[in-house]
Amino acid sequence: MRAAPVERSYVRPETIDALLEALETPGAAILCGGTDLMVKLRAGLVDPSLLVDISGLEALRGVRDEDGGIVIGAATPETELLENDAVRQRLPLLVAALETLGSVQIRNRGTLGGNLVNASPAADGALPLLLHDAEVVLASRGGVRRMPVEAFIVSPGKTQLRAGEFVQEIRIPAVDEEAVGRLHKVGRRRALTIAIASVGMLCRIREGRIAWIRLAAGSVAPRPIRLRPVEEALTGHVLDAELIPEARALAASAVSPIDDIRGTAEYRRGVVADLVAAFLSEICDA
Question: For the domain 62-172, what is the CATH code?
Answer without folding.
Answer: 3.30.465.10
